[in-house]
């Protein structure tokens, strides 16, 4: 079983939430952690807006053994009422920037014959969520990319993480707070610990909390039934 100890890891979106927790867990396990986000400061960190390009970040990071693509933005509301430019913004940040950074850093992993790529998707990427149509589409794109890349570069680990409702600033930042009573948000560190364990066990896909695997798999087998439950229970 591989260990993250001694790995050189780059974590995007590392100023708060899942990214910050993941960086902390990796560091505690002996990895050298590079952190990036739009607002981050401090040692071994690089502040940048991924929507403006990734070349500077890739050059700063250099060779890495583990790339955790966690940065992203959300949106909630009826699709037909989305403001102009919002669709492009979500795909630029959530998909294009992530894939461009992977494209820049993956060749080094391939040349060394080792490495691991983690894409933080969402349960919305495994099954559509009402009023999150475009966000769901961006997260589903990451899952499809991972499935294809895994076949292209079998020597490199590729993991997709599907978090559910997590206690982070994500909901407030998207402008629509989470107000449902259930499911209750879980701590970001729970995702971070599961993510790191998935790297160490070279798992292709994980759901956090793990019970989310059931509705996601049911959606693949019986989508019509799942839609009935979604319309009834939200």
Which key phrases capture this entry?
234 residues, alpha/beta, two-stranded parallel sheet, 8 helices, 16% strand
Could you please describe the fold and organization of this structure?
It contains eight helices and nine strands. Strands 3-2-1-4-5-6-9 form a seven-stranded parallel sheet, with helices on both faces. 44% of the residues lie in helices and 16% in strands. Helix 3 (86-112) packs parallel to helix 4 and helix 7 packs across helix 8 (223-233). With 234 residues, it is an alpha/beta fold. It starts with 7 loop residues before the first strand and ends with a helix.
Quick description:
The radius of gyration is 17 Å and the shape is globular.
Estimate percent helicity.
40-55%
Number of helices: 8
Overall SS class: alpha/beta
Alpha-carbon Rg, integer = 17 Å
Mean pLDDT: 91
Strand content: 15-25%
Report how far apart the termini are: 40 Å
Task: Give the neighbour order of strands across the main sheet.
Answer: 3-2-1-4-5-6-9
Low-confidence stretches: none
Order of helices and strands: EHEEHEHEHEEHEHEHH
User: Shape from CA axes?
Assistant: globular
The tally of strands reads: 9
Largest beta-sheet characterization: 7 strands, parallel
């Amino acid at each position: 079983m591989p260990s993250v100890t001694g790995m050189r890891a780059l974590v995007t979106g590392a100023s708060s939430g899942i990214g910050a927790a993941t960086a902390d867990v990796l560091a505690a396990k002996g990895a050298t952690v590079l952190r990036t986000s739009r607002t981050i400061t401090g040692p071994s960190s690089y502040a940048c807006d991924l929507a403006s390009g990734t070349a500077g970040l890739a050059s700063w990071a250099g060779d890495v053994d583990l790339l955790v693509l966690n940065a992203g933005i959300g949106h909630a509301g009826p699709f037909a009422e989305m403001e102009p430019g919002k669709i492009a913004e979500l795909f630029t940040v959530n998909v294009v920037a992530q894939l461009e950074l992977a494209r820049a850093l993956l060749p080094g992993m391939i040349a060394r014959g080792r490495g691991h790529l983690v894409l933080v998707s969402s349960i919305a990427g495994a099954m559509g969520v009402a009023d999150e149509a475009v966000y769901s589409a961006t997260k589903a794109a990451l899952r499809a990319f991972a499935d294809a890349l895994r076949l292209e570069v079998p020597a490199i680990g590729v993991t997709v993480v599907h978090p559910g409702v997590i206690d982070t600033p994500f909901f407030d930042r998207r402008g629509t707070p989470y107000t449902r009573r259930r499911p209750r948000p879980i701590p970001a560190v729970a995702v971070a610990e599961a993510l790191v364990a998935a790297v160490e066990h070279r798992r292709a896909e994980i759901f956090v909390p793990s019970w989310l695997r059931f509705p996601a798999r049911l959606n693949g087998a019986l989508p019509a039934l799942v839609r009935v439950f979604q319309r009834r229970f939200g």
